[in-house]
Amino acid sequence: MRRAAAWGVVVGVLLVSTARPVRAAEADGFWFTLASGVAGSSTPTQYQEWWFETPHAPPVAVTRLNGVSAEATTGGGSSFFLSGAVPVVVKPTDGYAYLAGNKPADLSAALRRQMAGGKGLASATPDASATVPPADAYQLTIDATEPDATGARVLTAELFDTAMKSVGMGSITLENGGWWVLGLGANPNTIPDPVPNPEPTPEPTPEPTPEPEPEPEPTPVPVPTPTPTDPGEPLPQNPPPSSGPPSDGGDPTVPSTGSPGPVATPEPATLLLAGIGGLAALGRRALKRRHV
Questions:
Q1: Who contacts 59 (Cβ-Cβ below 8 Å, separation ≥6)?
Q2: Does residue 127 fall inside a structural domain?
Q3: Mean pLDDT throughout 76-88?
């Protein structure tokens, strides 16, 4: 009886141990990520990711590639290919793989999910010699639109499982001269929070053009006050003009300039001489009459 009870306890412990929930970070899974950015910068301007549970990391075959060229990379090497070279198979079983176009210098931000576990790149070399996808491979399609007026494209990627059921699809904008990176890899040991799309750098506000300061008003030069002088005798004032005809019978066409000036008074000696002269003239006349 004691042995039976002990076996029951052991079985109960085993049941409790196997029934505990499994966290996503500890489950077998796979990350499918898509990022794009501008030339000269390793920071993604757009980023999308999908995670799905799988008992093992499957091989992935690129079965369609339109509008762009791609480079498939693992720890075993790289393979450049165009649309006519598909399928190309990568095997991220013991690490991660990625596909890229014009990839940035630093991939840590674009492949943060794959690099977080510290597993590194998968060891198998990309296989560009396959004629059909392997039966156990997931299938990946990549399509890019024609460039718009600015040269930008829209790149769409979709991943299908072996039953051709979509497990992830997304679209990102590929700027003119920019880059894109598609990551494929096993679930890392921990699942860090995703990095949100960075806020665009605001355009600096231009400084207003300062208005020129007005020229200062010149200081007026003071006018010196004249020193008063002795006016002396007052100057004669011009008499007012006369508006009527002259009263002395002069030329009426000549305007009068005013009253006549002062009349000179003859001296007494002058009058006396004039009287003597007159008397003498009268006496000579009387003498002449007598002789006649």
A1: 89, 90, 91, 92, 93, 134, 136, 137, 138
A2: yes
A3: 92
Q: Give the whole-angstrom CA distance, residue 55 versus residue 31.
A: 13
**pTM check: above 0.70:** no
CA distance 207 to 213: 17
Q: With 50 as the cut, is the pLDDT of residue 9 above it?
A: no
**50: in domain:** yes
Helix and strand numbers (H, E) in the chain are 3, 11
> Is residue 222 in some structural domain?
no
Instruction: Please list, in sequence order, all residues whose beta carbon lies within 8 angstroms of the beta carbon of residue 54, skipping any fewer than 6 positions away.
Output: 28, 29, 30
How far, in whole angstroms, is CA 270 from its chain's centroid?
Answer: 114
Q: pLDDT tens digit string along 151-209?
A: 999 999 999 999 999 999 999 999 999 999 999 987 654 555 555 555 667 777 777 77
Is the Cβ–Cβ distance between 144 and 101 less than 8 Å? no
Query: In the chain, where do the E strands start and end?
Result: 29-37, 46-53, 60-66, 70-74, 77-81, 88-90, 96-101, 138-144, 153-160, 166-174, 179-186
Task: Note whether residue 258 is domain-resident.
Answer: no
If one counts the domains in the chain, the total is 1
Residue ranges making up the domain that contains 133? 28-186
